[in-house]
Amino acid sequence: MRDSTRHALERAAELTRNNRLVEAMATAEPVITAADEFESDEIRQWLIDHADDFTKEV
């Protein structure tokens, strides 16, 4: 996964934890939709592995 993609996902997780879901989606959606087949698999696995990053308290 590209560093820029990982950074966007991490930022989306941070925004979600801060109850800024619309901004989180605006941050993550472009990198998710632009990903090729291989990166999509990596993104999917990252989201599975880091689900708690989106829900834990600040």
Report on the architecture of this protein.
The chain is an all-alpha fold and 58 residues long. The chain is built from four helices and no strands. It has helices at residues 3-17, 21-34, 37-49, 51-55. The longest helix is centred in the first third of the chain and has 15 residues, at 3-17. It is globular and about 30 Å long. The model has no long low-confidence stretch (mean pLDDT 94).
Task: Draw up the topology in text.
Elements: H1 3-17, H2 21-34, H3 37-49, H4 51-55
Helix pairs in contact: 1-2
Distance between the termini: 26 Å
Rg, rounded, reads: 11 Å
Average per-residue pLDDT, rounded, comes to 94
> What overall geometry do the principal axes of the alpha carbons give?
globular
Would you list the SSEs in sequence order as H and E?
Answer: HHHH
Subunit organisation of the chains:
single chain
Classify the helix fraction into a percent range: over 70%
Structural class by SSE content: mainly alpha
Low-confidence stretches: none
* Main sheet makeup: none
> What is the number of strand segments?
0
Strand % is under 5%
| Structure annotation, total helices | 4
